[in-house]
């Protein structure tokens, strides 16, 4: 296989801040991917936020910031009794975005992801704005074959089904349901953490018509996060071949993620989100 | 009826940031009040904080900030399945405060509120410092008649019953119990979220003597917010003709409202407060 | 007894911001200690953070900041119905640290604490970085006699058992288990709030070997803080003569203590910590 | 004349924070424009920053912020002995931008400006990102006739002549020199405050070829701002019919304008800029 | 002499952060005043800002903050070749303010200052809001006798001659010229750094009528700070018996004093102010 | 030559944020050094700040931050008409520091620098705290031979000649004058920007005895930066074989470098510093 176009390696520094032989730092465990070796998980960055239409931009700094935090950790969590180094994790690098061209960037993301999926890794994609989920799901569909069905679990404050916008971060949930071949059906989409005054009865009716399952923040609080996750997994796996999980950091209450683009109160706390991810 | 003195319209801009026909923005739904038409709810701002005696001032910016946030929302919440546009909401404007004169400003607030209440709207008052609740409750009393009884539900970290101060934000709960005709009795006052080291046994005895019902933050956490709200509603409605609800933003833990004048830990989270308001 | 060396009085101002006869301010209740009079509780500051090896330093400002907050309170909490002025609380002042000399500062802390403990007060020690717990526990051991057994309850995000470091804030839990005479046994150590990716299976095995009881943040959330505290107290009092309680502020979720050196998500909220302390 | 399309009035509040008869506040002096009455100066806002390609966005908040600051002033400066109320200043409102459509927004700006210029006012345009200067200059050209010549004085850290970009804030100086009919010649463009490592010899040669006059920040510092302004005025008025003045706030050193998109050191201080404007 | 009422000692800590025998720290050199011993300079704090009518309060924290900074210095400046320890400097403490009572606080300040002046010290007064200059000048007048004449040099962005306000920080320059016996004449007042749009021709005429000498920020920049100071000293000493120097920190450009209540651009830089003070 | 020990490459990313063929970005021009090829300038990072004894740490982040800023620039400055790409600049990487061991880190810095100097590059060293200048000057001396004489130009607010401290950022100017063989004489040391109250007559006498030339910030302001630089160059080159230039960012006024460890007013502005460096 030739080199994957539009994918630039991000070199992971190998030296810890001070020698500590009794732990393994994440940056020691994660290798840069040579685009051929097999691996379990592949980190992919997409430093793009041209889909953000509000003044609080900066999601393009996501891959840089998440990597800095990630590599500042060790591979083992006492809390979870999990050692990530039992998996082979590689860093595939960043997709070469065209910061001024939404469509072209989406095309590149889809193309890169499709080739990474062809390597049988599970991609761990770090955005970037939420519009990027659309080409990711498209790549997943293309790589798995015509008839594959995809379930989606989306942690989010917002429904992301806008019909009045285009080329922005607020409409990918609608877009994935309009894909050719219908690989994502509304009845396999679970949205967790929806809240706030941001929609209309039009969108309520849209959700109902499509059969999506929306767990509001209120429902998470009232029933507990474990019950909601259990239900979500059922929704997303019911008749599907695979599940795509998406986390919009604004699912967190604004006290826990004050830097997000559209912060809002009444959301999940950090434990509720972590607890869902490590379910 | 002539113009209400000391009340200045605040014009609500009508144009959304970008056209979005499938939602209704709050600023499209809320009209400036012409001081005559009937409405369900009337927003009134009081940009006054001379009652604040600590160095963290700024409550006078409340009406401006709350309006900016409010009008940045749509009228519909998926979480609550509520569309505010089923009510007629008007913006009455701001009371003309005299920033250097506590007594004069209180007089104007009382006078304006009394006339707004005469229009049969439910006023939604945006302060300003907490001292303003006193003239608001007075106006409510005056407008409802000599023998009307008023219950109060107060979300607050503090008892606000100081006896050593005057003209400040820490004594309105005492003041409303000392009103002529005794329209507000201690046994109809519920305070939710009280916490911290800020009082004395003198005030504990005062609370007991007056028969007030104090739900500490600890009680909210241990019993759950729903149970506390249910009890509070019973307290405030027991033999009363109407209920006044007051929210001091410092009822929230300082992580959720870091900009308040007297931030303190161990308070409610934003969901607990929203959940109480949308009870 | 002569003056205690290396201990400098911190004078507590006596005048409240404005006269308020119906409360007692903490700074009116807490007297500077004359190094002879008996008291129930003695506040001791240790403005030292040379044990911090990361770039977010500042724990040396702890005694100053905590005193400012503390003295800004009254002696009575309505929430707890507790009046601190029923105890005699004195302020012993700050230990004279040598900001550039870790070992010398530790020696001074141990020496000062031993003499304060000789006065039969319960010391309330305000750090300073977490390495300081080691000389404090040593002083406790020395003052109580050769055979005294000590239990420890530690609120912390981290295990603090590092073996690759020396002279730093991450190893005191190991150090106290290696003290001569073995006054602190692993089976009497309860750690509450541990979380995140920061260790290795080596440390898991160390915890198991030593018999320490670790309550992860996840366990606190799942079982409730009251149950965890009850268990912790059992662990720390099982066969011991006294209990040392240590609070690392990073036990709180980063939303509640954003200024700490190593902030991390998924931690306790402020009510859970306060509720544990006021158990 | 009918209403100008794509122009929305911004209502100017009339009530000062507290009564002060001996001064005239700017918001008392500036009236909302009724799109017909003659005036000397017309304020026009353009809340658009889609031309910004870096992560520090927010220029769209410019009209709101500048109006708040401006209207918080009185009409008289003792320093300059100037009373703005000797002019008739009106607020024309904001251009209706399409936040997601660069080209459409530029067309609207040009169209609105042309009509305002037809009213014989001097427009005072508050952006918005710097790309907006292009449609403004175009409108000026159109309104003044085919053969009118325009000089430009630009306060800026950057040359804004990019050839590799399109639809962005870094190329309007090139665009205005490529306008049909050649109304702006390089020899009539003065740029003041240029500095930093951001270009190439290609751009140096471009500047030379076009005959532009660049006053670097260093030249301002070495020769003094008065001399540079004098020269700039000569450049911009030499054979031209009118002068367009543009201020990019990043002409200021980053200590004086820390919030700008591309802050850089070695720039002008606030006095040097004010002194140039009030030349 | 008995104790001075309304004056509370502020104890100066004696221990440096770490031992450094070759310098003398300011907190080692400045002693708490025992209200009897003679000294050259006496520091007096007035933690009062109730005269501030804008939302950016906090001047009451001035004495605390200035002392912390001051005592963090040594007594010697290489730049000036001056050793402050050649003077006897004492810390007189803080005036007991009544934070809610402007008039009462002013009376106390005047009374305390008069007694301190009776001890023949030069007081170094740390505010607090600028209204406090009025009682200070009154005290100076009272202590020096009926016929003493006082010159004033005021570093300030604002004229502070408001006639529409009372009990606030914007009118002391008018008040001192209206004192009985006329000890301060306009022709002996020099104001340095005045700028911005904040007044009216009414105030220009007032300045002219009173004969005050106003050096605008622009004049400082154009003529240089040395020339302006020289002129100011002439103005303030022409026929007077003593000079009062007042520094409002907003004389600095907002880049140099961003925390002040009314920040404004075009002001002095920190060197220009320091250079004036150490003239 | 074998690999240089204790030196870790820092990989420079090669892809610009978006394609721009008409400029050359610095990260395209600077190559990672292979430890053998000849070059004109070699960038060396030393991420170490254990020599900082105050609570504002973070200088260890210097190499990371400076590289991010640097590589965000192009190679050409219009202001200076200089294209850096006419030099061969390589990035040698970071010295492997031992964050907890001052002496060991200094030894490594000296050793690495000596070998880099052996490659005939001019090293551009990015700290790290100011103590690191000592091993750098030592390496310079060792690499140039026994009798080489070194001049030093130091931009700094502080004299850095402490005699009471060891292992800290405040004494390297003394240390370099006490080196064996006396390669740096006081009469060849020029310090620019010294100011503030931080020393004593002891240090004044030390400066005089050693024959150092101190240009205070005041002298820079009064005489102009060009004259001072001219004098400094004379001092540092008088009879020396080479000159070491050191920049402590606190030479800037605190408005221009607010994040430095010991910010102070009255310093240079950013233009004065840049203008000196590009002299």
Could you give a short description of this structure?
With 279 residues, chain A is of the alpha/beta class.
Strand content of chain A is 15-25%
Q: Which structural class do the helices and strands of chain A define?
A: alpha/beta
Write down the overall geometry of chain A: globular
The largest inter-chain interface, given as chain pair and residues per side, is: A-B, 30 and 26 residues
| CATH fold category name of the largest domain in chain A | Arginase, Chain A
Give the tally of β-strands of chain A. Answer: 12
Q: Which oligomeric state applies?
A: homohexamer
| Tally of discrete structural domains of chain A | 2
Q: SSE string of chain A, helix = H, strand = E? A: EHEEHEEEHEHEHEEHEHHEH
How far apart the termini of chain A lie comes to: 36 Å
Mean pLDDT of chain A: 93
CATH architecture of the largest domain in chain A: 3-Layer(aba) Sandwich
Main CATH class of the largest domain in chain A: Alpha Beta
Radius of gyration of chain A: 19 Å
> How many individual helices of chain A?
9
Low-confidence stretches of chain A: none
Q: Which sheet architecture does the biggest sheet of chain A show?
A: 5 strands, mixed
Percent of residues in helices of chain A: 25-40%
For the record, what is the CATH homologous superfamily label of the largest domain in chain A? Ureohydrolase domain
């Amino acid at each position: 296989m030739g080199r994957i176009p539009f994918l630039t390696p991000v070199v992971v520094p190998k030296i810890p801040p001070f020698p500590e032989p009794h732990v393994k730092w994440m940056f020691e465990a994660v290798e840069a991917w040579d685009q051929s070796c097999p691996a379990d998980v592949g980190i992919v960055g997409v430093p793009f936020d041209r889909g953000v239409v509000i003044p609080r931009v900066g999601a393009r700094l996501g891959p840089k910031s998440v990597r800095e935090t990630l590599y500042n950790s060790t591979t083992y969590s006492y809390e979870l009794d999990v050692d990530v180094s039992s998996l082979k994790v590689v860093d595939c690098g960043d997709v070469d975005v065209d910061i001024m061209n939404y469509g072209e960037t989406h095309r590149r993301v889809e193309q890169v992801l499709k080739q990474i999926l062809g390597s049988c890794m599970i991609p761990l994609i770090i955005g970037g704005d939420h519009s990027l989920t659309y080409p990711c799901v498209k790549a997943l569909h293309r790589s798995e074959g015509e008839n594959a069905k995809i379930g989606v679990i989306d942690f989010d404050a917002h429904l992301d089904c806008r019909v009045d916008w285009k080329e922005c971060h607020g409409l990918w949930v609608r877009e994935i349901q309009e894909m050719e071949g219908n690989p994502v059906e509304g009845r396999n989409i679970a949205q967790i953490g929806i809240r706030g005054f941001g929609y209309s009865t039009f969108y309520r009716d849209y959700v109902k018509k499509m059969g999506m399952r929306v767990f509001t923040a209120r429902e998470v609080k009232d029933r507990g996060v474990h019950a909601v996750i259990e239900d979500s997994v059922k929704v997303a796996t019911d008749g599907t071949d695979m599940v795509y999980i998406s986390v919009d950091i604004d699912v967190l209450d604004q006290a826990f993620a004050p830097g997000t683009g559209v912060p809002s109160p009444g959301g999940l706390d950090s434990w509720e989100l972590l607890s869902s991810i490590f379910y």
